[in-house]
Amino acid sequence: MGSYAETARMFKLRRSLNQLDFFHRQKEHDVLKAREKLKVCCQNIADIENQRDKVEEEIKQQKNADNSAMVFCMQAQHKRLCQELLREEELMAHINTTLNQQEQELYRVEVELGKVSLLRQEVVKKEGVFQALKTQRATAQLHRKNNATHNQQCKIKHLKDKVAINKRGNIQSQSTIQEAQECHKTAAKYLKETIKRMRQQEAEKEQQSREIMQKRIQAVKSLKTSIAATQENIRVQQSKAKANSQKKEQEERRLRESLQAQGINSIKSAYQQKQLEEFQLKKQEYEERQKSKRVEIVAKILGEEQFARRNKKRLALLSHPIPMNKALQYLDPKPPPAKSSQAKEERATRKDLSDSSSSSSDDASTEDLQESLYQQGEQWIDEDLVAPEFGGLWDETYKKGLNVETVDKLQEKEAKQEVPQKPAEKLTMPAKNIVCRKEMKGPPFISKPEVIHFKDFEVGKTYKRKVILTNVSYTTNYCKLLGVSTQLMDFLSISFKPPGSLSAGMSCDVQAVFQPTINKDLEGEVQFISATGPFSVLIRCTIKKCDLEVDSHLIDFGTHVVDQTVSRTITLTNRGALGTMFSLDISTCPENSQGQMPSQSSTSMQQETSNQDMSFHTSPNQKSSSLRSIQDVGSNQEDQELSMDSQQKESATLEASSPRPESAISAGGNEVDVFLEQTEALIDQICSDTSNFTFGEERGEIGPFDSIKLEIMFTPTIPGVAKLDFHIKFSDSTCKPIPIKVRGLAIDVPLWVVQPSIDLKICMFDHLYQDSIIVQSRANTALRLTFVVCPEMQNHIKILPKTGFIKAKSSFHAQLKFLPSCMLSEDAKRFFDRDTGVLEVPMTVQVADQMRPVPFTVHAVVTSSDLQFDCNEVDFGYCSIYQSVKTSVRLTNLSLLPQDFGFIGLPEFIEVQPNDGFGTLLPLEFLEIDLIFSPKKAKDYLFRLNCKSGINRDFPLSCRGVGIHPPVQLSHSLIQFGATGVGGHAITVFYLIHSLTCRNQSSHAVTRVGREAEAPEGARLFSFTDPEDSGITIRPSAGRLLPGERCLVQVMFRPRLSEQEIREEAARLLHHTQFVRQEELERSGVELRQDTEHRTKTEMQGEPSKRKKVPPPQPQERQALNPNNQEGAASLGNEKLLTFTNPADIQPGSEAYEEGRASLLYSFTQRYSRYTIPCFVSDEDPPPEDRQAKPSWSPLNTLYLELHCPAVQPPLVVTSGNGQTTINFNQVAVGDKVVKNVTVQNISREFLDLSSSVLDLRGPFSLLNALRCIGPGERHMLLLAFTPTLSKKHCETLDVHSPNMTVELTLCGEGVDPAITCSPPGDLLDFGYVLERESASQVLQLQNGSSVRVRFRVSLASLCRPEKGADCLPLANISYPDTQIHPAVGTQNHSGLSVFSVTPMEGFIASKGSQAITITFQPDHQSVNYYDRFTVELMKKNIVCVMDLRGAACSRTMFLCGGDPLAVSTEALPPVLLPSDPELTKSETLEKPSMPVLLTLRAVYSKGAMRPAVRQLEVGCIHTMRPIKKNGEFHWDGLAALQQRGFTVEPSRGLVEAGQRCSITVTWTPPSGYKLNEVVQMCVPLTLNGDEPEIYRVTLLATVSIPVN
Q1: Residue percentage of the chain with pLDDT more than 90
Q2: What element of type H or E holds 62?
Q3: Taking the CB of residue 105, how many other CB atoms lie within 10 A of it?
Q4: E strand or H helix that includes residue 790
Q5: Is 810 exposed, middle or buried (0-12, 13-18, 19+ CB in 10 A)?
Q6: Which residues have C-beta within 8 Å of that of residue 374, sequence separation ≥ 6?
Q7: CA–CA separation, 1030 vs 1033, rounded Å?
Q8: More confident residue, 1307 or 633
Q9: If pLDDT is split at 50, 70 and 90, which confidence band does 1148 have?
Q10: I need a surface site. Which of 514, 749, 1273, 1528 has the fewest CB within 10 A?
Q11: How far apart are CA 110 and CA 28, in angstroms?
């Protein structure tokens, strides 16, 4: 953190210093500018004074000449000059004042610069350190990259090994599959028997279930009876309780009256009595609590006693001696073996009991220590008593592999180890180091130093090292020595006195004495034991060695002249503690190289061969990786062979990188090696010449930690290339020879140019560049030389002096002047490349009396100094005086050198950015320059911007623009929203103002565009355009503004996630899920193969008599091992093919889509967006005659609104419904209620206090629960209800507010009126006649024509509660004379059950569906007055169907219907016989009662004619399933007497089929002698023969009626 703070401080200081330097330069520029203005002002004053003096002299002359007119003119001119002089003097005073102020500011800035001079030096130093650190980090990153490459190669090798293992596994799995198939056949046989047995068991279970069902039915019936009895008992108890309460009230009343009669306050006494009762109750509760606490105390005491007994058992366990092997096993850092689940449960129970019993008395640390000791003792008991059932195969293999000698050696080592192991038997086992419920991890003691290193030891000497052990555990600890490693026991002794208990942070000393007797590297450790566990200190002993290296393996002398001696040195360094002799072997083919090269080549060939073998069995990717490894080997060999030329290097690279067949490589490998060795030897013999190189010292001795410089001198005698390869050999056999390569080039020229290639770097046109030419002479005499410049370059290059003399063995200096002009590309076409700007001019130095000149070359890159704009003129167009227009131009640096630039002399209405128009352009770099035009007035602007470069060149840029005064303006042209969470919204407002008024209300007209025309008056139309996919909403987006009016505009920002981002994230999550699933399949496949191999190996290695039967593989294993199974094959394979999901295939609303959206929300950081929204304003209002006419829109009136919209992660998100904020209740029936829940979650790190907006109190939506404060990560559920009362669509918004965000929930739903129809239609449902105790059913269909599900309820009038209405009262024994009026409820069954029953009584009718309602008529006695009323109701008791139910019951199959209703029901009257019947006797009447029927006939007498009366009766036969007679007969008796009275009956007898009816017509024609108003009465018996004969007495009453005209 410190380094980061220092780096940040360095950057801040550098930025501050740069700002201070820029401020200083700006002040200097201001001072210079003010001085120039002062100088110009002084010059103007001097000129004006001279003119004034001249005018005064002229006035004098004209006065002398008496030229009055001229005198007046001169005086006027003199006055004007005086005024100008006065103005200039005032200006000079103002400039002086400004100059003084600016100079003072400049001095202040210079003082500040002086103060920070030391700070500047510090920043420069820190910047250097930062650059070095940056370079170091780059080096470290490169090192990590190399390590990663190495790891990748290792991984490839591991994959190849894995493929080979998989092949072997496949072979083994095939054998396992065959065995599994055989086992499967055997299992199939037993499976059939098992299935048969299971079916028998199922049949038995089914029979048992039937019996149980019958028992349950009987139990239900008995339960109903008991429920009825219970209800009766409850009613009795309630009545008793009511009577007791009344009695108690009466007693209290009497007591109160008696107390009042005695003069005692009854209220006070009642209160005291009540307090006394409460006190008694509290006392009882207190006694009960005391009893429970006593029980708890006794339980705790018992628990403590039990814990004390367990402690005694633990101490007894710890007192026994611990076996040494168990103690060493404890010291082993590996985790202890797993215990059985029962032992763990017992220990957990004991720990819980001990914690509960000793919570008030014992300390937590003591409990943990005791528990750990108990666990260790228990562990030792388990290890002593519990042994594995079968020994491991590794134990047998290990024992078989040990021979007699190995066993003897192990016994000797164990005998040596017995001495240090004896103290360990007395150690108590360590406990966990837990303090404040924190367990320490790591060793309890640390050593300083961490490793005891005896470096560069000598045999026979004694070395001592002191080690400090520090207690780093959390509690007091001790330390005891166990011993040292076996390999160090003979050489190392430890001096250690146990210090006893050490507090945390205390230390003790340990001394190690090392007496080596063998010259060999040794490693080991010193083992200690502490209360919290074992630890050890590493020991490392190293002998003296040689570590030799040179600083360079290649010495390049470069190019030198013949007979010139040049020396170079290499440093030989010995970093080891052992000295050695060295010698330089200058033979061309050293023995060491001859012995090493073939092995290296053979090794590389073997690597290539193995790589090619593996490539035949691997994938193409692995092949390419193996080829790359071969190429790397080839490239390394090429780097070592520096003597080969370019063609040989290319051929070697191609040979090493091209894949060759295995046979060719194996057969021709040796021949290629021999050929390469011969070629190298031949090249070395040609190029090497030992006479050119000499050594300062060829043999010598280098001591330990010493370095020697070896000097090599190069004295060429023959021009050409000189080479020498030699080795540095050493007397120490462990040191390898170091190869050294020496190269040099010799030339033979008497004169030479010290710099044969003069590089002038990058030059600009029309600028002068100079350099020095140094000519060196090796001649013994003076020579005359001349510099020759080619004719093409004589106008651009000059050398002074052109001719001169150089002395013997001396040098000559000449001056080179280079002044390139723009004609260079035409003058020197063959030397200058116009495209790249590279100039390469070959030049010579001509020496007298010598044919061969001395060449040298002048190099330069010539570039221009131009700065270029991408356009010649900038047109800003029309711009409002309330806004600004920004135009970007591109400024390009055409030079190859960086150039400074700056815009100077800018007018006040122009702003140049960035950096106020100043900056630096790198070579060929371009920069976007923003020109901001902000007109102050409505006029035309024509101006020029001047860009000045660092070499004082001017580059003008012409600009133009027009300022306009729009009729409408914005109150704010820039709106910056606050940080808004995704899914939330932010709202702000601004005003749109119409500034123009009518002509009669304004004093002047406002200029519209420049100076052209006045703005038209009247109303204006405006329109905003919302950007797409931005979350920006402007309301109102369009409107009309009157002059002087302003409009409030609301802008809403709703940040949302784009569809493409969500789909890409969803595809990424799907791919990640597939990858994880693939890894799991691969891991399970590997584990399955290992398990199979282990079982196979166990079976093959076990004895035949003790082999256990291998269990058949599980179904999952068989599926994985099946080669035809694609999933199993995929799991066994090394490479898997992942299916990549196309983001375009993910549909919105799907599960993957919502998971991607949630992932983006939880990982969202921030997003910043800018939008520019145009507001179009019309030129004028549409005419009043045609308001629908399209107005004219002008771009000159367009306004622009800039929005800055930052979006952040939302603190509150909706997690239910896939994150949807629109809760759609869909269509709901009017009056019904639907409840939905919405869950919100706090994903921020702060607590959020939630609140909500108020919903419409009369609306259909309501929030059923309250909001609360939720913490980070918590969720809260909102219950929303929709209860429509009207048939229409409803929509409302609920805002859930949090401190930093508002979540807007849109509630929508539609109320629908249910459309229920009943079929068949009608108000009456007649069941006809039914035999008593039989039933008849009819079905009604309720059709739902609406688009919502409707709930219904069916009610019968006979089952409803009695109310103040006659419809619900039973009127079974009352009938009405009017046949059209019937009671709502008629006769009821004697059993108490309802006559009519409906199924179902309530339910739901699906949308566009129907519901069948079955009505059953089931009477239990004979009656024709069965009535009931059937009603269908919806929600809120909306009645959709009312129907009367009617039925009749008979005891016989034949019935008679029709006739007039009787005034009194026959069910309430005894059977009566009319005395007017002469044919029936008393015996017949007493035998069987007859049913009375009344039939009234009315004849009509009109206009002298008599119209007979006609009535009908119906005889029916009921269809029944009883085994009785199905058909019926009927016949009339006494028809002769009827005919005498004028009655005619047809038919008189007949047969009626079951379920049919037969009509009987009775006609009455008044007989002769009939008198008007006379009533004719006859009683005739009608016999019905069905299952039993039945007689009806039909009474016929006939009369004549005369209609009234």
Answers
A1: 14
A2: helix 2-64
A3: 16
A4: none
A5: exposed
A6: 310, 314, 317, 347, 350
A7: 9
A8: 1307
A9: confident
A10: 1273
A11: 10
State how far the alpha carbon of 728 is from the alpha carbons of 545, 681, 710, 764, 888, in Å: 18, 19, 11, 53, 69
Mapping DSSP to helix (H, G, I), strand (E, B) and coil, where does residue 984 land? coil
What values do phi and psi take at 1128, rounded to 5? -65, -45
The model's pLDDT over 716-747, given as tens digits with 9 standing for 90+, comes to 877 788 888 888 989 888 888 999 999 888 87
**Range from 10-14, 315-319, 863-867 carrying the lowest mean pLDDT:** 315-319
Q: How far apart are CA 115 and CA 221, in angstroms?
A: 109
**pLDDT beyond 50 at 1121:** no
Please report the sign of the dihedral spanned by the C-alpha atoms of residue 992, residue 998, residue 999, residue 1003.
Answer: negative
Q: Which amino acid is at 1458?
A: G
pLDDT digits (tens, 9 = 90+) for 455-468: 888 888 899 989 99
Give the highest mean pLDDT range of 603-612, 1358-1367, 1368-1377: 1358-1367
Give me the pLDDT at residue 619, please: 39
Tell me if 976 sits within 8 A of 1202, measured CB to CB. Answer: no
Tell whether the model's pLDDT for residue 17 goes beyond 50. yes
Q: How many CB atoms lie within 10 A of CB 1424?
A: 19
- Would you state the structure tokens that stand for residue 920, as one six-digit string? 């630096």
Give me the sign of the Cα torsion angle 1532, 1533, 1538, 1540: positive
Our CA angle for 1039, 1041, 1043, nearest 5°, is 175
Does residue 1290 contact residue 1258 with C-beta atoms inside 8 Å?
no
Give the DSSP letter of residue 688: B
* Residue 364, Cβ density class (10 Å: 0-12 exposed, 13-18 middle, ≥19 buried): middle
Cα three-residue angle 229-230-233, rounded to 5 degrees: 90
Instruction: Select, from the ranges 431-445, 801-815, 1495-1509, the one with the highest average predicted confidence (pLDDT).
Output: 801-815
The distance of Cα 565 from the centroid of its chain, to the nearest Å, equals: 73
How far is residue 747's CA from residue 745's CA, in Å, rounded to a whole number?
A: 7
Written as one letter, the residue type at 888 is S
The amino acid at 1131: S
Structure tokens of 772? Answer: 């020095």
Residues counted in the chain: 1605
Q: What is the largest CA-CA distance in the chain?
A: 194
Residue whose structure tokens are 């190289």: 593
State the average pLDDT over residues 1238-1244.
90
Tokens describing residue 1195: 């771009």
**What span, in angstroms and rounded, lies between the C-alpha atoms of 831 and 837?**
10
pLDDT digits (tens, 9 = 90+) for 968-979: 888 888 899 988
C-alpha pair distances (Å), 816 with each of 129, 980, 1419: 40, 69, 138
Q: Please tell me the distance from the alpha carbon of residue 50 to that of residue 56, in angstroms, as a whole number.
A: 10
| Prediction pTM value | 0.40
Structure tokens at 403: 């021979």
Query: Alpha-carbon distance 1362 to 1360, whole Å?
Result: 6
DSSP annotation of 690: G
Distance (Å) of CA 1266 to CA 446, 925, 1244 = 59, 64, 21
Identify which of 16, 28, 32 has the alpha carbon closest to the alpha carbon of residue 105.
Answer: 28
* Dihedral Cα 1194, 1195, 1199, 1205, nearest 10 deg: 130
For every residue of 243-272, DSSP letters joined together read HHHHHHHHHHHHHHHHHHHHT--HHHHHHH
User: What is the torsional sign of CA 175, 176, 179, 185?
Assistant: negative
Tell me the C-alpha distance between 1427 and 1432, whole Å: 17
SS3 category, 1052: strand
Chain centre to alpha carbon of residue 1437:
52
By mean pLDDT, which of 479-483, 901-905, 1117-1121, 1457-1461 is the weakest?
A: 1117-1121
Coil, strand, or helix at residue 666? Answer: helix
DSSP 940: E
337, pLDDT greater than 80: no
